[in-house]
Structures are given as C-alpha cells and as structure tokens.
C-alpha cells in the first residue's frame, strides 16, 4: 500500500507544481487553491508511505516522479522545449529511482 500512496503523492506533486505555475505567484485564486490543497495531500500521502518505506527511497521516488511529471507537463501543456539533453536527464532520473528501489 505504501507504494500506492507514494505514486499518488508523486502525481499530486505534479499537480501542485503545474497549478503553482498557473497561479502566477499566488495571484490567481483557483490555481492557488489547487496548489495548496494538492500540496497538503501530497505531503500527507508521502508521510503515509514513509511509515514503511525507507526515508531515502520514499523521498527520491517522490521527487523523481514530481520532476519527471513536471517536466512532462511543461512540455505537453506549456509548450516548453524538449531537447535530447532533457530526455537524457529524465532517463537518468528514472534509472536512479530504479537503482534506489532495488538496492535495498
């Protein structure tokens, strides 16, 4: 169950980072509200996952999912540039998360 909590915490991290961008420094009420609610829910689910998962594993997977998802949201939804170097970075993040998972 901890991995499910962690997966949803990572998804919520993507939602709050994307909605934070849309909030324009918290000057738009609806994206600001979505940012705060999804941030709280993401941290809560992360804390539930940390009950049984090691700190390093949980945190690295959570931030990795958030980083990859935020990158994807930026490219797909905001038209940010997609380059081979950025793709290489995403692959390295995924490889790092996999190595952390299987190292323990």
- What does the radius of gyration come to? 14 Å
Determine the oligomeric state from the structure: single chain
Which class do the helix and strand fractions yield?
mainly alpha
Number of domains: 1
Low-confidence stretches: none
* Spatial separation of the terminal alpha carbons: 18 Å
Gross geometry: flat
User: Quick one: how many beta strands?
Assistant: 0
Subcellular location: Cell membrane
Main location: membrane
Membrane topology: Multi-pass membrane protein
Keywords: Cell membrane, Membrane, Transmembrane, Transmembrane helix, Transport
Entry summary:
With 104 residues, the chain is mostly helical. It has helices at 2-22, 29-49, 55-78, 84-103.
Please tell me about this protein's structure.
This protein is an all-alpha fold. It has one domain (2-103). It is 83% helix and 0% strand. The chain contains four helices and no strands. It has helices at residues 2-22, 29-49, 55-78, 84-103. The protein is flat and about 45 Å long. The mean pLDDT is 94. Pfam families: Multi_Drug_Res (PF00893).
């Amino acid at each position: 169950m901890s991995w499910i909590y962690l997966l949803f915490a990572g998804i919520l991290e993507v939602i709050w980072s994307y909605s934070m961008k849309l909030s324009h420094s918290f000057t738009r009420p609806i994206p600001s509200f979505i940012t705060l609610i999804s941030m709280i829910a993401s941290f809560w689910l992360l804390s539930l996952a940390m009950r049984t998962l090691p700190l390093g594993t949980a945190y690295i997977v959570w931030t990795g999912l958030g980083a990859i998802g935020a990158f994807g949201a930026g490219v797909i939804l905001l038209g940010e540039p997609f380059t081979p170097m950025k793709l290489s970075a995403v692959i390295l993040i995924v490889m790092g998360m996999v190595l952390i998972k299987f190292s323990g």
